[in-house]
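Re: Re: ligand-bound prediction request (bumping)

Still looking for help on this. To restate: I need the protein modeled with phenylalanine bound, output as structure tokens. Inputs repeated here so nobody has to scroll up.
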Amino acid sequence: MSAENIDQLIEEAKAFTPSSKEDLEHYRLRFLGKKGVLTDLFAKMKEVAPEQRKAYGQQVNELKLAAEEKLALFREQFEQDGDEGRAQQDLSLPADPMATGTFHPLTLVRRQIIKIFGRIGFNVSEGPEIEDDWHNFSALNFPPEHPARDMQDTFFIDLHADPERYQGPLALRTHTSSIQVRVMENQAPPIRTICPGRVYRNEAISARAHCFFHQVEGFYIDEGVSFADLKQTLLYFAQEMFGAETKIRLRPSYFPFTEPSAEMDISCSICKGKGCNVCKYSGWVEILGCGMIDPSVLENCKIDADKYSGFAFGMGIERITMLKYAIKDLRIFSENDVRFLDQFKGLG
Ligand code: PHE
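Reply:
Sorry for the wait, this slipped through. Here it is.
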């Protein structure tokens, strides 16, 4: 083979740009493969006149180096495009981003509520989701067949209850006031506790209602606890949760287990009281129910109602979360859509 021909091959080897891995492999076979150009050229070394052998050898070597260099360069590039190659090539590169979880917004808000009340001495109590009639209703002044039971459409459980442990039929608890009864039965005042948990009501599912939701209820029992204590505690909570400028108002209401009872509104956290569709242009939104614990409830739980008084309150975590993050449809909380959940990344 003439020197010109080898020069041409060198040029060809240097000019090559593969468009695919296969392309590169053809290139490798053509120049560096066992039956490739270079094997051929090396084999022909013997036939070259001795005085030209040195120059020939140098040219062939140049071709070999050019082909090897090209091959190495593009191999690296193709490998960098693939995941494996990347890791093999440079271990100092940042790893692929990993999908991390987030706290569910309801968890975030529950933790925040617990923190806010924790700062003023409330601890946390929990209880079972399957309750007996006594803890969910009777101890809380809901007499049998009383229409107040209809306020909370109940899921009953068709089980043969152990009559020693459970009184009356079993049900999924309709509120976490049932935990309050359990705490009052087992602890002596002063008691200051909040009771977070999931509750169940047989309601049609819509943007504003679900068959299960989450509550935090709380109560404080001691000597001389008054409605003023209730009001101040809830004002503190509202301002910690929704901002220092938040106002509260209490409207008379009815719950079987509190007397007097009230519902608490806060100045609308979305429009700051100016009026919007969340507060129905009233400037106020309801966030919880509350009242002074009815003395007969204290007595039901063997607490001396002449000596002690207490207040109680209960709120839905969904409601608080919807107001805090301007969420319009409650159903989204149980859909597990990561596009929704991801928006809470880094909070809490
Ligand atoms: N248990 C009530 C409810 O679920 C809320 C509440 C708790 C009201 C404590 C007053 C006092 O609606």
